[in-house]
Amino acid sequence: MSDAEQREPNVTYTAPVGSIDLPAFDEEGVAYEIVACDECLPWYAEVVVTDGGILVREWHAVDCPAFESLLTGD
User: Fold this and answer.
1) What is the pTM for the complete model shown?
2) Handedness of CA 7, 13, 15, 21 (dihedral sign)
3) Tens-level pLDDT at each residue, the chain (74 residues)
4) Angle of CA points 37, 54, 28, to nearest 5°
């Protein structure tokens, strides 16, 4: 096993964070419900207005399994 496979994921408040932009509305224009991540402590979300519309930017610990799932589309 490599060192990365042996270490525990860092999902505490001191973890490095990353973000992903998600649509704020579905195809019918209904707003998505925003629910806090229960897998990492530094999670937060912000609403971002762009030329293309309104997005929700979610911030997670980079080791967060939910964040990894969002990034890979699983």
Assistant:
1) 0.84
2) positive
3) 566 567 889 999 999 999 999 999 999 999 999 999 999 999 999 999 999 899 999 999 999 999 999 999 88
4) 90
